[in-house]
């Protein structure tokens, strides 16, 4: 068994600020910007294309800690609108809810984006009617060349009636790759990735477990609509998605909405443990891992099998707090957090 001194050394290696000269018992999460008690609404929006892992636990718990702090509302939303590159797993929807319960997280609302496609279609049509979006049938290479040259494609300024007709044809006539719904931006935006960004695409022959739709919103479209409609006030945004705000603000500006307060939150991983679904799947198929719950993995079901407690994970996330930079911990760090939680927990729910 590790001594108290050894535990302290392990903790010091991962978050030295915890050992500054102050009473750690009084340590709290930093205040959210513009937050009022009883008025905070936060959401966690995973893509259910695999089992939740320690990184997901960080998002689940930090949002939970803040919602509890401000007596707010907690939304668990499944952003499952990419059946081409990130095909959802039917089991994953249940896994996320089970693991949230294991961690003590109690969402007030559970939403599934693929159940709300008609809502996104309505707003897509409204944008076309406002002259803020269009359906592009240009060749991909031709469009890319025009975008680089800061020039409009021939589709951009077609009459609204023609745009609405094209929008309907995305559901009935056009095939995958033949038409893309685009949100209008400044053609000369300094960042080419922000120019005329795609809001919807056609995806045929997919294997989505909940919907056979063929017109699918891209994440920045449906996420913007849902964040507004559900009254989200604060977003803890993964560092890997920091860029998304710049695209989403176009929709908020066009509709006259107020954008939520955002705080960038770095990702969390375990040293030497595969983080990508494809890598884990490969290991399962070749027999290296026994399954998603292999105790050597960073999935929550694997960590639980390895003896990690939900209190230990809460302590780990509490002590790490909100950080812009990505953090990689060791197994020893995790074990130290479990022991700290068992002996002298300092997290506050």
Fold blueprint:
Blueprint (H helix, E strand, L loop, with lengths): L3 H11 L26 E4 L9 H16 L3 E6 L11 H13 L6 E4 L4 H13 L3 E4 L3 H9 L11 H13 L7 E4 L14 E5 L12 E3 L1 H11 L4 E5 L5 H12 L5 E5 L2 E3 L6 H9 L14 H6 L4 H11 L6 E3 L1 H13 L6
Parallel strand pairs: 1-2, 2-3, 8-9, 10-11
Antiparallel strand pairs: 4-5, 5-6, 6-7
Overview of the molecule:
- The chain has 349 residues and is an alpha/beta fold.
- The chain has 2 domains: 12-115 and 223-270 and 304-343, HUPs (Rossmann fold); 118-219, Glutamyl-tRNA Synthetase, domain 3, CATH 3.90.800.
- The protein has helices at 4-14, 54-69, 90-102, 117-129, 140-148, 160-172, 219-229, 244-255, 277-285, 300-305, 310-320, 331-343, and strands spanning 41-44, 73-78, 109-112, 133-136, 180-183, 198-202, 215-217, 234-238, 261-265, 268-270, 327-329.
- The chain has a 4-stranded antiparallel beta sheet with strand order 4-5-6-7. Strands 1-2-3 form a 3-stranded parallel beta sheet, covered by helices on one side.
- Helix 8 links the parallel strand 8 and strand 9 (261-265).
Number of helices: 12
CATH superfamily of the largest domain: HUPs
In percent terms, what proportion of residues is strand?
5-15%
Q: How many angstroms does the end-to-end distance come to?
A: 28 Å
The CATH level-2 architecture of the largest domain is identified as 3-Layer(aba) Sandwich
Summing up helix and strand content along with how strands pair, one would put the structural category as: alpha/beta
Q: Tell me, what is the CATH class of the largest domain?
A: Alpha Beta
Q: Main sheet?
A: 4 strands, antiparallel
Overall outline:
globular
Give Rg in angstroms: 22 Å
Helix content: 25-40%
Give me the count of strands. Answer: 11
Summed over residues and divided by their number, the pLDDT gives a mean of 93
Number of domains: 2
Low-pLDDT segments? 19-26
Write the H/E string, N to C: HEHEHEHEHHEEEHEHEEHHHEH
| CATH topology category name of the largest domain | Rossmann fold
The strand order across the widest sheet is 4-5-6-7
